[in-house]
């Protein structure tokens, strides 16, 4: 039986002194005979211009790949690389900052394709269990890659590991000054939506720093709709003292 699909998103600025640096895409789009759900969280750093650029251009770059329908994973990897190249070429305009990204494309309500760089995360709930589809790209996990390109990972007491003592993620768009030591290669996962899958969450690390995947799916299991679920998820993260900018998208499949 075809699922009824609804979606909602919510964003809250954190306690930092800078402006909100997160951007979100949450929409459905008809492409030929296919209905695509396009969902993304872009968590910017050192300015919001790179995240803003991604919001406008990344899905366009993905969907214009000739082999999107036949070799989706390869198309996504190529589009991520091409978009990062564009951002680096425009560094004078976009600035020195960067952005993490997690994207999810839901094809005809049947197939979910997730890609990510950084630490924003995609989680689904299947038969009540939380399943993470993205990969957290932490500097400590990718130390060998970073060091092989001449970089280093700092481990200062009281701080998180950072690439060259600066960035707390090992993969991101932009960050031209760190690019020699930083990858923009996404991890890609493809998941078929079965009868037991009823929820998709995309969220920035402001949620995942204070909540486990299972905490997140459990906390909204009684929410009446996707929008109220997204709002409740952020309220819960704030009650647990999250101080970051927080963005989340909830997709309900009923």
TrEMBL record:
Catalytic activity: O-phospho-L-seryl-[protein] + H2O = L-seryl-[protein] + phosphate; O-phospho-L-threonyl-[protein] + H2O = L-threonyl-[protein] + phosphate
Similarity annotation: Belongs to the PP2C family.
Enzyme class: hydrolase
The UniProt record lists the keyword Metal-binding: yes
Domain of life, per lineage: Eukaryota
The protein's name: protein-serine/threonine phosphatase
Alphabetized Pfam families for the sequence: PP2C
UniProt-listed SMART domains: PP2C_SIG, PP2Cc
EC number: 3.1.3.16
Record key words, sorted: Hydrolase, Magnesium, Manganese, Metal-binding, Protein phosphatase
Cofactor: Mn(2+); Mg(2+)
Domain PPM-type phosphatase: 6-253
Source organism (scientific name): Morella rubra
UniProt cross-references to InterPro entries, sorted A to Z: PP2C, PPM-type-like_dom_sf, PPM-type_phosphatase-like_dom
Single GO term (MF): protein serine/threonine phosphatase activity
Entry keyword Endoplasmic reticulum: no
